[in-house]
């Protein structure tokens, strides 16, 4: 199925390319099929012209700087989303994040046994330094991404070898079928780097002087202030990018971001606090975008500590917490109640009931538990987050109703992470987000005991679940695979190693003259599709 | 500079060494006492323990603490502060890139504060206990008690949004742009620095105004403005120099917060981000640089004092 889907996408892509080639690059008609699809909440007003205009620099505020442009190094979302606009991968995420599209690979075939993937590459891709992108570069980059220098090696477990099998062809051989492969190849760490440059200049040099083949290339990097990118004039998607450049400006203060938007010092700001969105929406020159994001906010419960090893207590706490009330009060209604360990990725089980707020049931479960008279609990939260502290206060009230006396411990983020990963906590507020559309990453990392994190450091151990998670990686029948992930989510939900909270979206505010800005489910954005109209 | 001053300077610069050594030891061990693993923070919550372990080794953080300290010290004596474990750049480069920004801000703030304080102090002293004097006093206390991030936000709202005079944030590329961009941050810090300067200056001016030599100058028919500038101010401003010198550490501390509020890419911002990511070498380097700055400025203050008042001798 997956293979046929790939081929279908390829044929669509070929048609698109034909149409795009027949139109001269300077003549961008409104009908260009590559033009981003209009997105909910981002419709342009009727009188506006929808023909993309070229030129202009997009000033884009984000909370912090990145640490490296080498695709295999950084792990922060901001760095990942930056790298994706500067490099190409074999395949890429569709603009809204619900599928995989061709990237440098025009098409691919998967062998019957699911262990061999053959990719045919475009022959017109050039690196920012003018060198052509070759299959050797692809092999080198992927071997590097799964090698010892990489911070992402763990995400390529099944690859046996990568071979150059033709002038424009690369073959990936797997130890065993591994269905998440295509998803993984769209990841920023799978970006293609020029072998010659990295080998000659070394990885430290490359981290600061990146050479990719993506729509934008680095012009300057003023650490702590801004990253200046300029348009790659030889980008393989002819006519794109529309912008002359992008400036990622570092603005850590929420208030400063809002003021800068109002003073038109920015075209886009990310992470605008939900509490300010309503006010900004009223501004006629601004546009608010709340984009769904594959993120789960939850409270891991350390089940290696008493009384949290008692299932009834974990379930009782889940029932006692009114998630919708927290969403309404803290996220200003922006957010969705979570029922699964999975964020909204492929095979997300939308039939799970989860733990809808039910005080009676919670009280009953408490009465049947090992601590019918209640107990004292500690919730550790991140001191830097207003959302966390507001949430904790509400939870304290809600848990009091079932006899749990919650003590809130506010600590600095680094300390909270350390307590979490060394399992020295009772309950903690945290979240994770998926980098790929396949459910495997989060399943192995967040739920499966053998994934290396003890089920996100809860100590939850369910052998049956573990076995099924590993089987699901190899299951080639799409229907069966989906059923397995549905089942995994059901089991995990029932065992309640977390207090499942909500899915937090990403908030962006843009000037009205910004068009084509779309955020995928994974949080990434393709800035080659963005254009500015004259105001 | 005469021999006495030179000797004094050399002596104090030499005594800098044990002080910095002590500071380096304290910072080295203190920051490692805070829980939080740099490798884990760098890799984010997604990475598995094996990758974390490998990165820890690459950072050299798997070695015994004493070894780490000896390596650090060895490098330090060769003028090398090591490499940032997160950004993988030499600490000196990172600090060098940002030192001028913070120095610009600190000097700008100092000049701005003096320009604000001196006229106000003079005015208050001349019109002692008038409505104006009391008004300034009340304003001083208000300015002193408002947190700087709050003042910063108010100034932004007033001077960048309502009246579009200054940019909300950033640093700019040319000298004039720096002046424009850093005006609000400098003014913000001045709000809490000027009250500290005004009050002693006002008291001093009041004392001097009733001194005999001022009476004598007036009696000789020297214009009042000349008396104020040449006789009163010259004598009164000495105390201000000391206060500024003493407050330089505090000024640097203030810049840490203000740089974050206004997104100014200075040392303060680097310090905050490296504390959050547990970038030990950068924190160590920054604390040393801050300490050295404070000591050097205090030394310069002492020397400047002897130039302004030749009666003062350095020992």
TrEMBL record, chain A:
Membrane topology, from the record: Lipid-anchor
Transmembrane segments: none
Keyword Signal: yes
Main location, first listed in the record: membrane
GO cellular-component term (any): periplasmic space
Entry coiled-coil feature ranges: none
Keyword annotations from UniProtKB, A to Z: Signal, Transport
GO molecular function: peptide transmembrane transporter activity
UniProt cross-references to Pfam families, sorted A to Z: SBP_bac_5 (PF00496)
Name of the protein: 4-phytase
Higher taxonomy: Bacteria, Bacillati, Bacillota, Bacilli, Bacillales
From TrEMBL, chain B:
Start and end residues of each ABC transmembrane type-1 domain: 99-301
Any one Pfam family match given in the protein's UniProt record, by short name: BPD_transp_1_N
Keywords: Cell membrane, Membrane, Transmembrane, Transmembrane helix, Transport
GO CC terms, sorted: plasma membrane
Membrane among keywords: yes
Transmembrane segments: 12-34, 101-126, 138-161, 181-198, 236-262, 282-308
Protein name: ABC transporter permease
The species this protein was found in: Brevibacillus panacihumi W25
Lineage of the species this protein comes from: Bacteria, Bacillati, Bacillota, Bacilli, Bacillales
């Amino acid at each position: 199925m997956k293979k046929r889907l790939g081929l279908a996408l390829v044929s669509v892509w070929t048609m698109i390319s034909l149409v795009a080639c027949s139109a001269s690059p300077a003549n961008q008609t409104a009908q260009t099929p590559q033009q981003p699809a209009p997105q909910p909440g981002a419709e342009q007003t009727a009188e506006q012209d929808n023909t993309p205009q070229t030129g202009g620099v997009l000033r884009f505020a984000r909370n912090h700087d990145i640490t490296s442009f080498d695709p295999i190094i950084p792990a922060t979302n901001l760095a990942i989303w930056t790298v994706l606009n500067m490099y190409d991968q074999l395949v890429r995420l569709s603009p809204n994040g619900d599928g995989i599209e061709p990237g440098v690979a025009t098409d691919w075939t998967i062998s019957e046994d699911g262990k061999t993937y053959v990719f045919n590459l475009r022959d017109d891709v050039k690196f920012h330094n003018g060198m052509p992108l070759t299959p050797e570069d692809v092999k080198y980059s992927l071997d590097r991404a799964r090698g010892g220098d990489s911070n992402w090696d763990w995400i390529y477990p099944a690859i046996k070898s990568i071979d150059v099998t033709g002038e424009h062809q690369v073959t990936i051989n797997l130890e065993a079928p591994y269905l998440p492969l295509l998803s993984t190849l769209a990841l920023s760490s799978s970006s293609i780097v020029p072998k010659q440059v990295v080998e000659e200049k070394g990885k430290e040099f490359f981290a600061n002087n990146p050479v990719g083949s993506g729509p934008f290339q680095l012009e300057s990097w003023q650490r702590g202030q801004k990253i200046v990118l300029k348009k790659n004039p030889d980008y393989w998607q002819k006519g794109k990018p529309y912008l002359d450049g992008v400036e990622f400006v570092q603005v850590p203060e929420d208030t400063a971001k809002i003021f800068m938007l109002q003073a038109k010092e920015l075209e886009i700001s990310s992470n605008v606090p939900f509490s300010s969105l309503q006010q900004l929406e009223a501004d006629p020159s601004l546009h608010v975008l709340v984009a769904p994001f594959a993120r789960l906010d939850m409270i891991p419960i350390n089940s290696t500590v008493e009384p949290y090893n008692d299932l009834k207590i974990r379930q009782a706490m889940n029932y006692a917490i009114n998630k919708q009330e927290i969403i309404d009060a803290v996220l200003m209604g922006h957010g969705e109640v979570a029922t699964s360990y999975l964020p909204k990725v492929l095979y997300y089980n939308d039939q799970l009931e989860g733990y809808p707020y039910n005080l009676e049931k919670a009280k009953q479960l408490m009465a049947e538990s090992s601590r019918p008279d209640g107990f004292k609990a500690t919730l550790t939260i991140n001191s830097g987050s207003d959302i966390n502290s507001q949430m904790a206060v509400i939870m304290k009230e809600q848990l009091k109703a079932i006899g749990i006396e919650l003590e809130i411990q506010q600590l600095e983020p680094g300390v909270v992470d350390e307590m979490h990963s060394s399992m020295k906590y009772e309950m903690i507020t945290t979240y994770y987000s998926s980098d790929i559309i396949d459910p495997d990453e989060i399943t192995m990392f967040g739920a499966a005991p053998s994934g290396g994190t003890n089920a996100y450091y809860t100590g939850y151990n369910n052998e049956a679940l573990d076995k099924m998670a590993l089987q699901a990686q190899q299951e080639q029948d799409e229907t069966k695979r989906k059923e397995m992930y549905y089942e995994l989510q059901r089991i995990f939900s029932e065992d309640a190693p977390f207090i499942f909270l909500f899915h937090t979206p990403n908030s962006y505010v843009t000037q009205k003259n910004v068009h084509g800005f779309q955020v995928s489910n994974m949080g990434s954005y393709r800035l080659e599709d963005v254009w500015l109209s004259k105001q | 500079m005469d021999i006495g001053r030179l000797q004094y300077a050399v002596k104090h610069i030499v005594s800098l060494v044990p002080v910095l050594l002590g500071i380096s030891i304290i910072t080295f061990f203190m920051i490692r006492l805070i829980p939080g693993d740099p490798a884990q923070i760098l890799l984010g919550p997604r990475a598995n323990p094996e990758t974390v372990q490998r990165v820890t080794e690459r950072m050299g953080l798997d070695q015994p603490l004493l070894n780490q300290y000896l390596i650090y010290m060895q490098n330090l004596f060769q003028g090398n502060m090591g490499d940032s474990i997160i950004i993988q750049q030499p600490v000196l480069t990172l600090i060098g890139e940002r030192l001028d920004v913070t120095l610009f801000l600190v000097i700008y703030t100092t000049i701005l504060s003096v320009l604000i304080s001196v006229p106000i102090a003079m005015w208050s002293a001349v019109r002692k206990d008038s409505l104006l004097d009391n008004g300034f006093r009340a304003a001083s206390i208000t300015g002193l008690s408002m947190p700087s991030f709050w003042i910063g936000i108010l100034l932004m709202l007033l001077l960048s949004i309502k009246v579009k005079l200054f940019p909300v944030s950033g640093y700019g590329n040319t000298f004039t742009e720096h002046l424009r961009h850093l005006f609000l941050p400098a003014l913000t810090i001045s709000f809490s620095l000027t009250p500290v300067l005004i009050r002693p200056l006002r008291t001093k001016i009041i004392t001097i105004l009733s001194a005999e030599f001022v009476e004598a100058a007036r009696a000789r028919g020297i214009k009042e403005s000349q008396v104020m500038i040449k006789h009163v101010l010259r004598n009164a401003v000495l105390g201000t120099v000391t206060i500024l010198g003493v407050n330089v550490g505090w000024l640097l501390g203030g810049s840490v917060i203000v740089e974050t509020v206004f997104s100014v890419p200075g040392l303060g911002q680097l310090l905050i981000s490296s504390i959050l990511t547990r970038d030990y070498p950068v924190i160590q380097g920054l604390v040393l640089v801050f300490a050295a700055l404070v000591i050097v400025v205090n030394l310069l203050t002492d020397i400047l004092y002897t130039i302004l008042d030749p009666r003062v001798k350095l020992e």
